[in-house]
Amino acid sequence: MDSRKKDKLLCSQLQVVDFLQNFLAQEGIVQGLDPLASEDTSRQKALAVKEQWKELKATYQEHVEAITGALTQALAKTEEAQSKRVQLQEALEQLQAKKQVAMERARTAQKQWQLQQEKRLQHLAEASAEVRQRQRGAQQELERLRQELGALQQQAGQKRDRLQRHQTFLQLLHILQGEPLLPGAETERPQELGIPEAKPQEQNTGDAVGKDRSVPSQADGLQPARGTSSRWFPEGQQHGKGT
């Protein structure tokens, strides 16, 4: 905008210079003619030039005032624009600083979140490993208990069979010796040599077997006589007979 105003002012000045040059050239031509005629003509032309000069001066003054006013407004607007530019620059710098701070906070939060996730995953992995280890231990313990239970069941079966053999042997001794069973027991004898039915005196005989383990092992092929029956009863059974 300033360059355009300067160009207009320079153009007006060039027009004035061109007019003066043309006027001087015409005066030089008139001076070669009649002096009297040239004087009147010169006077008229001088008046015309004076009027034109006044008009040009007024136009020039208007242009100068217009340019000055425009320059003043332009300077004011330039200063205002410069002030706004400074304000915008400061605002931009503040925004850049806030953006940098926000990015730093975001990176810090991202790192913290990643660390928390890593710790959580590590904790879950450790907990999972511990659970798997406990599960394996529990399975091993369960398997061991199953094996122990199987062994105990086998031992219980063996002891039950041994106790049954002892009871059967003692009942057979009673039958072979022709002696009655304990009071309260059934006196019915089996028809065949097999496992007899359970009698109430089996508990006492079981206790007697527990006191003397040598009876079953020695009685497989014995056929005791009626008069020597007391030698084959355990001590506890003899006491029971006496009572």
Automatic annotation (TrEMBL):
Chain residue ranges for the region called Disordered: 181-243
Coiled coil listed as a keyword: yes
Keyword annotations: Coiled coil
Keyword Ribonucleoprotein attributed: no
InterPro entries per UniProt: Zwint-1
Protein name: ZW10 interacting kinetochore protein
GO CC term, one of those recorded: cytosol
